[in-house]
């Protein structure tokens, strides 16, 4: 079995005159990311590998999760589409992998990998810092595909405030 923790970056700051890739988190995002990290620790959903978009807001989200795991930041996840995210996941090596990326790709990917979506009113719009935990009945990530994962848990930061 393989477990995936799929995290959309926390709320970013649009008030700064920076290009999209350089945007940091805003005040709400800086509050939300640690809440998601605490939830992951409380539930025992701890990754042994993290693959993160190289954008400022995704890297800051990871830093604020407070999760100890090796992290790889890659441009391949920056504004990636579902197919690109699957390609990145198939190259993963950990038994439990966290991917941190952006909408709309990450939400599309979440909806595409699970057999049955979680019964959560926010799953289909995948808001900032939304986190899906899904399990794959596979031995290697290279065997991951759409429509084969089981949704284990799903949370949004507002439920943790």
UniProtKB/TrEMBL annotation:
PANTHER family: OS09G0287300 PROTEIN
InterPro entries: His_Pase_superF_clade-1, His_PPase_superfam
Name of the protein this chain belongs to: Histidine phosphatase family protein
TM ranges: none
């Amino acid at each position: 079995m393989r477990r995936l923790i799929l995290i959309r970056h926390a709320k970013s700051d649009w008030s700064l005159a920076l290009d999209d890739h350089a945007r940091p988190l805003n005040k709400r995002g800086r509050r939300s990311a640690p809440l998601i990290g605490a939830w992951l620790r409380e539930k025992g959903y701890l990754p042994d590998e993290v693959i993160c978009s190289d954008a400022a807001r995704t890297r800051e989200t990871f830093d604020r999760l407070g999760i100890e795991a090796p992290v790889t930041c890659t441009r391949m996840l920056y504004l990636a589409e579902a197919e690109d995210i699957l390609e990145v996941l198939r190259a993963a090596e950990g038994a439990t992998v966290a991917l941190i990326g952006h909408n709309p790709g990450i939400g599309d990917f979440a909806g595409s990998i699970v057999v049955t979506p979680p019964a959560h009113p926010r799953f289909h719009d995948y808001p900032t810092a939304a986190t899906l935990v899904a399990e794959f009945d596979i031995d290697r990530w290279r065997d991951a595909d759409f429509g084969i994962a089981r949704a284990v848990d799903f949370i949004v930061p507002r439920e943790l405030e």
